[in-house]
Amino acid sequence: MAESIWAIGLMSGTSGDGIDAALLKTDGETVAEIGPGTSEPYDPGFQARLKGAYGQWDPPNGLEHDLTKRHASAVLRLLDEAGMTAAEVGVIGFHGQTILHEPERHRTRQIGDGALLARLTGIPVVNDFRSTDMAAGGEGAPLAPVFHRAMTADMEKPVAVLNIGGVANVTWIGEGDALIAFDTGPGNALIDDWAQRHTGEPVDRDGALARSGTVDENAVARFLENPFFARLAPKSLDRDAFKSFSIGEMSAADGAATLTAITAATVAASMALLPSTPKRWLVCGGGRHNPALMNALQERLGATVDPVEAIGWDGDLIEAQAFAYMAVRSLRGLPISFPGTTGVRQPMAGGRLHRAAR
């Protein structure tokens, strides 16, 4: 049996609002201990630079360097808060920032300099988790399902873990470690963009705008006509895959209500692609903070929908913890993607190791 080691996972999601950093002790198969975590928001200027790179293959000069330095700062802050030294950590799982994801063109782009991060922190770094999968015919996403499976090992099956970031994705875990995962559709992206345009706020805080509006069910039905929803799983999306969709002329409140309903409806539509009905839906990611969205999910799924805190997880750190877990799997040559999660032909290891001078 392999020895468990401490790893740090780093995640900067499609919302582009900051970095989550988390400590996890694992052998790459079981989770021995969950350590502390932290979140560092990006300053508005950097966030604007980052979002300005979305949809591009080559980021503007200096952006990748500055992104990596901010990740190094998050690592050092986490170590300080945990009372640990770099020597006590075996590896960092560095997801980087996705600026482009085009599975239909067999390419994905996550920026972040793994070698620089290793130098700045003095800890070995694994990054570039998606390229091997895509080169072997996979979608390159989602990757967290292997960690969701480890975390639900003792739960009654089947269970669904729904991550709602900019894009929403579901992991279905059945008996005997059966694993299916795919992007369900938009998560917070359309809601956030609407709120920014109509209120100047980056999000619909507490779902207040949506709760004051009325859903246009015709717009929801039109959205579900997109060919993506008829495709079999696995499948994945870019954050801005639905940017061209228009809900028409609506008040700020009605638009927020309708876009919130769209996210919930696309999750409900995903039920048709699952082998059996989950006994429970567990929600992580920023979307679980939106009561309007959580209520819409409950109504459209007709099932119990709980934030992952209901079972003692930290929903803000799950994705970061997942990349800590995958970094250790990468060191051990264990697969991180599977036919049922990315569509790759056979289970694939992934990640690129950058060693650090110590």
Summarize the structure.
The chain has 358 residues and is of the alpha/beta class. It has 11 helices and 12 strands.
Write the layout of secondary structure elements.
Blueprint: E1 5-12, E2 18-26, E3 31-41, H1 44-52, H2 63-82, E4 91-102, E5 107-111, H3 114-121, E6 125-127, H4 131-135, H5 145-151, E7 159-164, E8 167-173, E9 179-186, H6 189-199, H7 208-211, H8 217-223, H9 252-269, E10 281-284, H10 291-301, E11 305-307, H11 318-332, E12 352-354
Parallel strand pairs: 1-4, 4-6, 7-10, 10-11
Antiparallel strand pairs: 1-2, 2-3, 4-5, 6-12, 7-8, 8-9
Helix pairs in contact: 2-3, 5-11, 6-9, 8-9, 9-10
Polypeptide structure, described:
The model has no long low-confidence stretch (mean pLDDT 95). This protein starts with a strand and ends with a strand. Helix 10 links the parallel strand 10 and strand 11. It is globular and about 60 Å long. With 358 residues, the protein is of the alpha/beta class. Strands 1, 2, 3, 4, 5, 6 and 12 form a seven-stranded mixed β-sheet that branches. The chain is built from eleven helices and twelve strands. Helix 5 packs across helix 11 and helix 9 packs across helix 10.
